[in-house]
TrEMBL record:
InterPro entries found in the cross-reference section: LUD_dom, UCP020269
Species of origin: Tissierella pigra
Pfam family, one: LUD_dom
Domain LUD: 4-191
Protein name, UniProt field: Lactate utilization protein
Domain of life: Bacteria
């Protein structure tokens, strides 16, 4: 499956690398990102579980992540960093990256404003098509994230999307990246492990 998906993604203009595990993916990421690069990180359990934030900080990179409280205005600084790292909610077999966001900062940074964007994707995010991707987001990614954030949404309690009107709703901005944007280089790291939500 990875070979076909890699071929499709490359045809769509993305730079693609595949890895057997997150350890190998992290090693490559640390080689690709230079010590002088500033790095923004989007909200992602995949990236948190990789431990890349700590390693980048330890070696001297400026790193901005709103999940860490060690810098002022981390969202704004992450949006203007040289490099942006995140994951995707779903990827289709025809090479579309489908995402849903609450604020929109993560999805906006996936396709504009950075020298390079790195998107790390576990095999559990691979979906047959757009409909399957939306089903995955609504009934896996969104409920698990809402529960993790202790939000008062119906999906927190039921585990299923009801297209709610809750003020805590996190499904507010939907994006689909069909192909490489004109002025942004997107690196896709496909990892043969289940990662994140």
């Amino acid at each position: 499956m990875f070979l076909e998906l890699e071929k499709v993604l490359k045809n769509n203009g993305f730079i693609v690398k595949t890895f057997e595990n997150t350890t190998k993916a992290k090693e490559e990421l640390l080689l690709d990102i230079k010590k002088e690069d500033s790095v923004g990180i989007g909200g992602s359990m995949t990236i948190q579980d990789m431990g890349i934030y700590e390693e980048l900080k330890e070696r001297g990179n400026e790193v901005y992540w709103h999940w860490r409280k060690d810098t002022q205005n981390p969202i704004e600084k992450a949006m203007t960093s040289d490099i942006y790292i995140t994951s995707t909610n779903a990827i289709t077999l025809d090479g579309k990256l489908v995402n849903m966001d609450g604020n929109g900062n993560r999805v906006a940074s996936m396709f504009f404003g950075h020298k390079d964007v790195y998107i790390v994707i576990g095999k559990n995010k691979i979906c047959t098509d757009y409909d399957a991707a939306i089903e995955r987001i609504r009934n896996i990614a969104a409920p698990l994230n809402a529960k993790r954030l202790n939000l008062n949404t119906p999906c927190t309690h039921t585990g299923k999307c009801s297209d709610c009107e809750s003020p805590d709703r996190i499904c507010k901005v939907e994006t689909i990246i069909h192909k490489k944007p004109n002025i942004t280089t997107i690196h896709i790291y496909l990892v043969n492990e289940e990662l994140g939500y």
